[in-house]
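ok so for the tutorial part 2 we go from a plain amino acid sequence to predicted structure tokens. step 1 is just haveing the sequence, like this:
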Amino acid sequence: MKRLLVISYWIASILLVVICLSSLGYRFIEALFIGTMFLPGALATKYFFPKVSFKNKRSGIKETIFVVLGILIGEILLLIVAHFCIISFRGNLPGSVNDWPDLPHILSNPVFIAIILTSLATGCHFFESWLNKKHPDQSGTISFTSDRKHVTLTKDDIIYIESNDDATTIVASGGRRFKNYTPISQWEAILAPHFIRIHRSFLVNKSAITRIDVDILYIGDIQLPISRKYKDAVTNNL
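step 2 — the prediction. this is what the tokens look like for a chain of 238 residues:
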């Protein structure tokens, strides 16, 4: 059900983009074709940006620049190819005039493209977060990939999740640890409301918490820091 709703979000979002593109002189089917070209860039934005780490500020800025340039260049190339395909198809229609109009300037404008991609990716992130809070997973199991192996755990098995640069570590009962590349922000959306964020690097199972001090959270003998940013949220929730 959630997957269908997310797919519906992307369809509705692309249709809004198509309506905008129709005003640029494209027929509806042409605008639909061009609009779908924004999907790869939006999905890449949603996937890659949460993986950028600012633990090292300089490195984080460099990663951000590379990701932005890579996505924008790829997206502009996709739009150029799509426009060329449309014009080629027009030229093959009976009675058509081969005027070969140029790609509209707005579709080669990096700022416009960045706004569209960011809006689509951000909207999907918040929509998925809202869905997970409104309709939490009742199965109680979580599946993910760790070291190329498929792992399935119950939510109660997971004690906490730690973010380390571009990877996350899922710490489970029995001392089990699993390396994964899903950003901690996505884990937070998936595991809500049973887990609570206490630090930009830590997401904790509420039922595993044994004690809280001023800025330290205890899970048995394990001590995890509570950052100033999340302190009020931790206090209010627990």
